[in-house]
Task: inverse folding
């Protein structure tokens, strides 16, 4: 069977945007796009000579903060369990928040292979300092990307397939 790569992270970091970009189609629902609620969506991705199944998680997030965090933890728990490699997505525009530390704790306990990715680095030169604080998660080297600008994604994919 193909390895499973799960995109995990708190709401609005850009998981579905990255998923759609990597898959090359608008399969997953991006915030502000009306559509059906689906908590997990899969698609096959090939990078160089590696194929894997990419999983988006989260679906439509509940609005209230308590429910949102509960939903995030449940979704992350399931995805982490199924995944061979976890793509832990964070947001370089908002910076680190408590929910990121919650996901990091879950990942440490899981002992799964993790690639830490900082999304929304649309301008690598201007935002290079924004990436450093993500070392504080204790997950390792953060990979800066822009899902909208399609920047940094090749380096990130190299690291992911390297872990298979
Ligand atoms: P999810 O909840 O993690 O699935 O996040 P979404 O994919 O729904 O995206 C949340 C918001 O972040 C949307 O408004 C996206 O357009 C925006 N977004 C996603 N990726 C990027 C990016 O690389 N740069 C910027 N500036 N915005 C992004
Ligand atoms: Mg989403």
Result:
């Amino acid at each position: 069977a193909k390895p499973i790569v799960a995109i995990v992270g708190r709401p609005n970091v850009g998981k579905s945007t990255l998923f759609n970009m990597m898959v090359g189609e608008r399969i997953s629902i991006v915030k502000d796009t009306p559509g059906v609620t689906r908590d997990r969506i899969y698609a096959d991705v090939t990078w160089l000579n590696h194929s894997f199944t990419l999983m988006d998680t989260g679906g439509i997030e509940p609005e209230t903060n308590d429910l949102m965090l509960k939903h995030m933890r449940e979704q992350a728990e399931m995805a982490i369990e199924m995944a061979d490699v976890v793509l832990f997505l964070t947001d370089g525009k908002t910076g680190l928040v408590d929910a990121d530390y919650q996901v990091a704790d879950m990942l440490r306990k899981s002992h799964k292979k993790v690639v830490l990715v900082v999304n929304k680095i649309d301008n690598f030169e201007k935002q290079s300092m924004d990436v450093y604080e993500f070392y504080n998660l204790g997950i390792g080297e953060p990979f800066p990307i822009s899902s909208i600008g399609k920047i940094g994604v090749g380096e990130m994919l190299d690291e992911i397939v390297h872990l298979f």
